[in-house]
């Protein structure tokens, strides 16, 4: 459920008509709904009420805007971060260091040191050497780093190959069959409190079966580790729950997921940790855009909008579907292609799609753009970096400016030998 609805024929974000935002801020612009973020955060939490002790760490890579982080901090969420930059954001967004989990396959020594400085809550180790280095860094500073070992359960998540992370050939985690021996060796290091295991098998999962299979393997691993004498107090089950992108998509609900988790983890007696990203942020945002031209095509007309692949990369990168609707639909329909202005054929949002009839200067939105949208934006083709707006009831604020190419040019230098 989200709070982007039509009132008197005009699409609103909560109580704000989207044309008001377009007039005030211009287009393209991301528009987020505070009420939707809060609702998703609460629904996900309630879904896990039957799963015992739970720590919720919002995967901030889905949408790391500081205002969004503030909302989720107010909802009691910690953060899952994958870089020192994200750690800085989580802290600046009001999330306590102890509630931050640091994931990622390429944490540098500098990043590990900064995270030790900050006193974050948990390191999710991706390889044995990382654990050795972290242990040495922590020990030298008189610290003990809380850590879990991320395992790769070799499960096919059944999602797009580019967002699948739990197959044995993927770069993430350590092979689950090697985990017990590695755990033995790493747990001997002073400087490390190796207290559990983690998994994350992929994103936009539309079926709970691969997750349940992965959790079952983790359950066996936990039993094996305990039998070997290890204390296992934390298991991080990752993120990955999908969201509906198409009007007729049917996905497992957070409640279905919660019931599965309760079933799969019965008797584990650990603190369960979760790293939801998309399921919190996806439907909490839209990308508001204006039609530049409707260009006649050989097969279908091209609706050329002022948003492009550099603002919303998912269609070009993952062949992702984003629903497109007019802000003031007339009721009439047309079959069209939707594309942006960037000089790439990949800058196409839809081909042969049945959409509301739109004409030049009409407003439209790409729905379900709150996750992996603005955060992946670039300035390719020297376009301005897309701004972000947060709505709360009948008020709204620009929470990220439109960064102009001039700002980037000001950071570029022409060497002196070229200026003579
Ligand atoms: C990306 C990521 C997540 C969040 O995934 P979603 O599909 O957005 O829920 C969680 N954990 C890790 C380690 C990730 O890399």
UniProtKB/TrEMBL annotation:
The active site is at residue 343. The keyword Lyase applies. Gene3D superfamilies: Alanine racemase, Lyase, Ornithine Decarboxylase, Chain A, domain 1. It comes from the Bacteria. Keywords: Amino-acid biosynthesis, Decarboxylase, Lyase, Lysine biosynthesis, Pyridoxal phosphate. CDD domains: PLPDE_III_DapDC. Belongs to the Orn/Lys/Arg decarboxylase class-II family. LysA subfamily. This is Diaminopimelate decarboxylase. It comes from Sphingomonas ginsenosidivorax. The lineage of its organism: Bacteria, Pseudomonadati, Pseudomonadota, Alphaproteobacteria, Sphingomonadales. The gene is lysA.
């Amino acid at each position: 459920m989200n709070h982007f609805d039509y009132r008197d024929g005009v699409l609103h974000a909560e109580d704000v008509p989207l044309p008001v935002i377009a007039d005030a801020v211009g287009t393209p612009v991301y528009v987020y709904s505070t009420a939707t973020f809060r609702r998703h955060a609460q629904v996900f939490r309630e879904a896990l009420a039957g799963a015992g002790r739970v720590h919720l760490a919002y995967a901030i890579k889905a949408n790391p805007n500081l205002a969004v982080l503030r909302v989720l901090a107010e909802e009691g969420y910690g953060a899952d971060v994958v870089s020192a930059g994200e750690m800085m954001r989580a802290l600046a967004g009001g999330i306590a260091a102890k509630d931050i989990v640091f994931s990622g396959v390429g944490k540098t020594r500098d990043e590990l040191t900064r995270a030790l400085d900050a006193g974050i809550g948990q390191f999710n180790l991706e390889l044995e050497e990382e654990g050795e280095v972290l242990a040495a860094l922590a020990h030298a500073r008189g610290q003990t780093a809380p850590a879990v070992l991320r395992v790769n359960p070799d499960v096919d998540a059944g999602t797009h190959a580019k967002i699948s992370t739990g197959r044995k050939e993927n770069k993430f985690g350590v092979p689950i069959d090697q985990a017990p021996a590695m755990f033995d060796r790493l747990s001997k290091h002073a400087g490390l409190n190796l207290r559990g295991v983690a998994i994350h098998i992929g994103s936009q999962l539309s079926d709970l079966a691969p997750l349940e299979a992965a959790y079952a393997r983790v359950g066996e691993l936990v039993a094996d580790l305990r039998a070997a004498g290890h204390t296992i107090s934390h298991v991080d089950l990752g993120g990955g729950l999908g969201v509906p992108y198409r009007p007729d998509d049917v996905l497992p609900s957070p409640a279905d997921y919660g019931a599965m988790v309760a079933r799969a983890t019965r008797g584990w007696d650990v603190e369960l940790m979760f790293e939801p990203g998309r399921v919190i942020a996806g439907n909490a945002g839209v990308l508001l855009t204006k039609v530049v031209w409707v260009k006649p095509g050989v097969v279908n007309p091209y609706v050329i909008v002022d948003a492009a692949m550099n603002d919303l990369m998912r269609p070009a990168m993952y062949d992702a579907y984003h629903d497109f609707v007019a802000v003031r639909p007339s009721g009439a329909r047309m079959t069209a292609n939707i594309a942006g202005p960037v000089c790439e054929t990949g800058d196409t949002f839809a081909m042969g799609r049945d959409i509301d009839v739109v004409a030049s200067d009409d407003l439209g939105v790409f729905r379900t753009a709150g996750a992996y949208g603005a955060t992946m934006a670039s300035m390719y083709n020297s376009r301005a970096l897309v701004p972000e707006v947060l709505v709360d009831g009948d008020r709204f604020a620009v929470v990220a400016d439109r960064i102009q190419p001039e700002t980037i040019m000001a950071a570029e230098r022409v060497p002196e030998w070229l200026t003579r």
